[in-house]
Predict the 3D structure of the following.
Amino acid sequence: MKGKRILLIVGGGIAAYKSLDLVRRLRERGMSVCAVLTDGGSQFVTPLALASLSGQEVHQELFSLTAEARMGHIELSRDADLIVIAPATADLLAKAAQGLANDLASTLLLATDTRVLAAPSMNLRMWLHPATQRNVATLRGDGMLFVGPNDGDMACGEFGPGRMAEPLEIVAAVEAALAGNTAIPLPMAQSAAPGPLAGLRVVVTSGPTHEPIDPVRYIANRSSGKQGHAIAQAAAAAGASVVLVSGPVTVPDPAGVETVHVETARDMLEAVEGALPADIFIAAAAVADWRVGAALAEKLKKGASGPPTLGLVENPDILATVAQAARRPPLVVGFAAETEKVIEHAQAKLARKNCDLIVANDVSPASGVMGGDANTVHLVTKDGVETWPKLPKQEVAQRLIARLAALIKESGA
Ligand code: CTP
């Protein structure tokens, strides 16, 4: 998320003080923050505080001579990778839903096609009012993302939904939004129409595993977890109840997914077995094939006897184990990470690991897949091979989930 540009609109609510902390948290993660302060917002925090924390000029005026001369207020939102409204007041949401443009914040929201993430903050009656709920539904339909509001004690003395999400929750939603996840669940999401995987349980593995050599060293690989996490997120957005078993990664846990964190291949197998039975198992993790047979309890020291020999033993194959289990999920999907003869190797894995489908990808350094944001995959089944164009990992995930939903429907499961 380093280098991403956030345009932060601070609306007029008591939660505006938390937005000052939000600015720090975003900047700690290497993002730059340009702030827009509404008239209401300036009643709660000062432009000076925002400017000091963001290290940038704070914008307040719609018709500002200097801004018009230098770049024009519209450029403000076009330069951003994501617009965050925190606090998003009932008034700001109403204006955005109506397409009003009578101050800087509302004009920016109307003049942009940049994705917007709103962190609502208001009295619970205002939040629950049909007018606000209508506006939120409209904005969601237009593609606006939401984080919170949370339940809790409110500054006005009441208790209920309306408290702005905490800064770190907003940061996680910002990271998810920047990663392209559009499915940040709303409190109202439960009432939405059931998705194609509603009522089904999906278990996904993701990320690398770390296999200890001694207390300070381990064997690992370059997997980022981006693809597996995107798949878990897409499955949840399709209505499934999802358990994500993740190796050590830096990407955030997807919203609405039960995430179990593990280190080693053996831990991953145990967590997966604990999560079964399931309707669909998707093995997207880059599991280390080998571990050190006898990992040392103390740090390995250099010595006269020269470099040590690491006695490697093979790790359990999680995918093959699940695909052979008595409780085999009806749909078992594996990945094939290859650097040559991608399809040939994937076809061999399909048979060897008893899978229904293999998602094959080229992970040679030139492909940029490992750690990157895009993927070119081939779907390999016993019926043939289908090659998809190069797509963002989020889109690969959504398409894959749509395909699995169709397969489940066809099989009448
Ligand atoms: N996999 C697994 N457990 C392992 C190794 C791999 O569950 N111990 C799964 C991966 O999650 C992936 C599939 O098996 O879905 C294929 O992984 P890949 O690394 O491509 O293949 P390998 O099994 O390691 O085979 P090879 O060494 O021939 O590449």
About this structure: Residues 205, 265, 283, 285, 287, 289, 315, 317-319, 334-337, 349 surround cytidine-5'-triphosphate (CB under 6 Å). The first helix runs from residue 16 to 28. The first strand starts at residue 5 and ends at 10. Residues 183-192 have pLDDT under 50 and may be disordered.
